[in-house]
Automatic annotation (TrEMBL):
<feature type="transmembrane region" description="Helical">
    <location>
        <begin position="335"/>
        <end position="355"/>
    </location>
</feature>
<feature type="transmembrane region" description="Helical">
    <location>
        <begin position="45"/>
        <end position="68"/>
    </location>
</feature>
<feature type="transmembrane region" description="Helical">
    <location>
        <begin position="263"/>
        <end position="283"/>
    </location>
</feature>
<keyword id="KW-1133">Transmembrane helix</keyword>
<feature type="transmembrane region" description="Helical">
    <location>
        <begin position="411"/>
        <end position="429"/>
    </location>
</feature>
<keyword id="KW-0812">Transmembrane</keyword>
<keyword id="KW-0472">Membrane</keyword>
<feature type="transmembrane region" description="Helical">
    <location>
        <begin position="515"/>
        <end position="536"/>
    </location>
</feature>
<feature type="transmembrane region" description="Helical">
    <location>
        <begin position="162"/>
        <end position="183"/>
    </location>
</feature>
<feature type="transmembrane region" description="Helical">
    <location>
        <begin position="203"/>
        <end position="220"/>
    </location>
</feature>
<feature type="transmembrane region" description="Helical">
    <location>
        <begin position="361"/>
        <end position="383"/>
    </location>
</feature>
<feature type="transmembrane region" description="Helical">
    <location>
        <begin position="80"/>
        <end position="100"/>
    </location>
</feature>
<protein>
    <submittedName>
        <fullName>Uncharacterized protein</fullName>
    </submittedName>
</protein>
<feature type="transmembrane region" description="Helical">
    <location>
        <begin position="482"/>
        <end position="503"/>
    </location>
</feature>
<feature type="transmembrane region" description="Helical">
    <location>
        <begin position="441"/>
        <end position="461"/>
    </location>
</feature>
Length: 548
């Protein structure tokens, strides 16, 4: 007897089951490969362990007291609807960030597209890849929740409030994560498709980031004009998007005595429905992207192909000519400096101060410009020396006796960028303030700090060189180690502040004590910078082709 014909519904179920099996294979393969790669790479294992310790334990510990207080308020008195609304808003914000970041920083291993276009249905690939990446990202939500939710239960002396809170936050978190993923994929596609230069797109991103930061700061100041940093529940309710999220919070807390608001039921239904709708839209859009030919995307890099002669100031030595070439490459492809984005975010504080207190901003700006210049001098090209030149390393290692010239060229390129801030911005601002002593001090201090910073960065980058390419902020290249970058950027601040105190003091009052303190400072940072440069030369001169 022949098999009976299948109905459309049965065929659909068979396709769904087949796609689910294929998606599970992708998920399992990606997660196993990620775990194996992490365990087999000591540097990456340490980085992941430190990140999980910081996000999963240390940071949540600061919130244990608030969680205990929140749980206690659930057990006595009226339910804290306002604070619960804030938690819903926080879950939505976390979901948007995680979804958006996975779209701009793909976590899958290898290049799937050529194979999966012919071997696995696109929908299965997208579901598998989406599940794998969000699973890896949600680890940073699950770990803090595993510490804070028990604290809520302890404070309430009852596990039920913690369970209700977790169940109420899941739709907000997942719906926002899928929506953030869809938004991120759309912006990433627009970034590839738009026929504008990389500089234009980079300027737009920086401007949007600065506007969002300044807008948030001014908004919070308007909400808490006289706040000492501790917000009351009434104050917290004012920064939640009004009645909708608080009404939804009343639904979450209904079993512990909150009065349900009809608007809360509507908001809850919308949040629950948003999970499958956002997921379906994300899968459909990513499936369409996966089936597009790579050549169909317009190349918006806007790189110049013509050669340019070496500028006159850089013709003196071979190292200065190398520095010019790095600067020229950066002009053509500013994505080389994508890893410096945290410096920009960190310097937004002075912009916020300028928007609210111009006098204070002008007082802080010169010193800040010198420290930012030092961060650029070492951070631009020295934190992963030779790492992003992997394609040229075989030629460098076999045709030159030493990598010292290339390393000096990278350092000089970074110092050139740093001087744009240290001399081009800090000195004029200090001179406009009418302080000749401080102007001379800054002019003398800047090149010393920049030279020491570049040498130190070379040494730190040589400790953990990275030759493998990875994606960060939608830029695929051999980015510097995150721990090295953070360590250098944070170290630049106290070192720079000490110099900003010692140099003006010694210039204004050149006593023996002040000159001795200044001389000791210069010798120490100079010795550290020189040792870093020497260590980098020694480390990279020992490289062989097998090491890369």
């Amino acid at each position: 007897m022949g098999d009976r014909a299948q109905t459309p519904g049965e065929r659909g179920d068979r396709y769904v089951r087949s796609d689910a099996r294929d998606a599970w294979v992708v998920v399992r393969t990606e997660l196993r490969a990620r775990v194996r790669q992490t365990l087999e790479t000591p540097r990456q294992l340490v980085s992941v362990a430190v990140l999980l310790l910081l996000v999963g334990i240390l940071l949540p510990l600061f919130g244990v007291g608030a969680a205990l207080s929140y749980g206690a308020s659930l057990a006595s008195g009226p339910p804290p609807v306002g604070r619960t609304g804030v938690l819903v808003a926080a879950a939505m914000g976390a979901g948007l960030y995680l979804g958006f970041s996975t779209a701009f920083q793909q976590l899958q291993l290898g290049t799937l597209s050529p194979l999966v276009r012919t071997a696995v249905p696109p929908r299965a690939v997208v579901v598998g890849r989406l599940t794998s990446e969000l699973t890896q990202a949600l680890v940073f939500v699950v770990l803090p929740a595993g510490l804070l939710l028990p604290a809520v239960a302890i404070g309430a002396r009852n596990p039920i409030p913690a369970v209700l809170l977790a169940l109420g936050l899941v739709p907000a978190l997942l719906g926002s994560a899928f929506a953030g993923r869809l938004l991120g994929e759309g912006l990433a596609f627009a970034n590839r498709w738009l026929g504008v230069s990389t500089w234009t797109k980079g300027a737009a991103i920086l401007a949007a980031t600065a506007a969002a930061y300044l807008g948030t700061q001014m908004w919070l100041e308007s909400v808490f004009p006289d706040s000492s940093g501790t917000a009351t529940e009434a104050g917290l309710q004012t920064i939640v998007p009004g009645a909708p999220l608080q009404a939804y919070a009343s639904v979450i807390l209904a079993p512990v005595g909150a009065q349900i608001r009809p608007l809360g039921l509507v908001v809850g239904a919308v949040l629950v429905a948003a999970v499958p709708l956002a997921l379906a839209a994300t899968v459909r859009f990513e499936s369409w992207l996966l089936q597009r030919e790579p050549e169909a995307d317009r190349d918006g890099t806007g790189h110049a192909d013509e050669s340019r002669p070496v500028a006159a100031p850089f013709r003196a030595t071979s190292a200065t000519r190398v520095a010019w070439r790095y600067l020229l490459r950066t002009r053509r492809d500013p994505a080389m400096l994508a890893h410096l984005f945290p410096i920009f975010v960190g310097s937004l504080g002075i912009l916020s101060t300028a928007a609210t207190d111009l006098d204070t901003a002008l007082w802080l700006a010169p010193g800040t410009a010198v420290i930012v210049g030092a961060a650029l001098a070492g951070g631009a090209y020295c934190l992963n020396p030779l790492g992003d030149d992997r394609n040229q390393l075989p030629l460098v290692l076999t045709s030159t006796g030493s990598t010292a010239m290339v390393l000096r060229g990278r350092a000089l390129a970074g110092i050139t960028l740093g001087l744009l801030f240290a001399w081009g911005l800090a000195v004029p601002l200090e001179l406009a303030d009418g302080s000749g002593t401080h102007t001379v001090a800054l002019a003398l201090f800047a090149p010393i700090l920049l030279l020491a910073g570049a040498g130190t960065a070379l040494g730190m980058g040589a400790l953990v060189p990275k030759f493998e390419r990875s994606e960060y902020l939608n830029v695929e290249r051999a980015h510097p180690s995150l721990l090295v970058s953070i360590g250098y950027m944070l170290g630049s601040i106290p070192v720079g502040i000490i110099g900003l105190v010692l140099f003006p003091t010694a210039v204004g009052d050149p006593s023996a004590l002040h000159l001795a303190a200044l001389g000791t400072y210069v010798l120490v940072i100079g010795a550290i910078g020189l040792a870093g440069y020497a260590a980098a030369v020694r480390r990279f001169d020992r490289l062989t082709l097998d090491d890369i």
